Amino acid sequence: MNRRKGSMTLCLLLLFSMLVTLSAGALYYVSRTASEAYLYQQGLSSVYAAESGANVALGRLKTGAMGNQRFTLSVNGRRVKVTVTDTSASRTEGTVTSTASDAEGGYKRTVRITYTREEHEDQRIITVTNVSS
């Protein structure tokens, strides 16, 4: 009977050890997944803000503003720095660079757009030729 009691205790100890190990593994997985989801969400917020800044710049170009300008905006708690630069002497080609980051300067994301500009029947036409991020 003593032997049976000892083997039962050993089995319970092994079972308890397995449960602790499985619980620790599950807790690690959940915390790691939550952390990765948070980092992904922060980066995605910066991407959206940078895209918003680029869209504002393209809108300004469409309504008559010329290149070679800089401005800063705030989009959903992100600081967005936008630079518009003419790349041709005729001012018909240029680039828009929009960089967004959180308040501490982290989670920085940049969108870069090249464009052409032409006047047609009293309308300014902006054509995006390349987008990178």
Task: Characterise the protein shown here.
46% of the residues lie in helices and 35% in strands. The chain has one helix spanning 2-62; strands at 69-75, 78-86, 93-101, 109-120, 123-132. It has 133 residues and is of the alpha+beta class. Strand 3 and strand 4 (109-120) form a beta hairpin. The chain contains one helix and five strands, in the order H-E-E-E-E-E.
Count helical runs: 1
Q: How would you characterize the largest beta sheet?
A: 5 strands, antiparallel
Radius of gyration: 28 Å
Low-confidence stretches: none
Q: Can you give the helix content as a percent range?
A: 40-55%
Q: Spatial order of the strands in the main sheet?
A: 1-2-3-4-5
Shape: rod-shaped
Straight-line N-to-C gap: 72 Å
Q: Please report which band the strand proportion falls in: under 5%, 5-15%, 15-25%, 25-35%, 35-45% or over 45%.
A: 35-45%
Number of strands: 5
Mean pLDDT: 86
Secondary-structure element pattern, one letter each: HEEEEE
**Structural class, judged by helices and strands?**
alpha+beta
Note the topology.
Blueprint: H1 2-62, E1 69-75, E2 78-86, E3 93-101, E4 109-120, E5 123-132
Antiparallel strand pairs: 1-2, 2-3, 3-4, 4-5
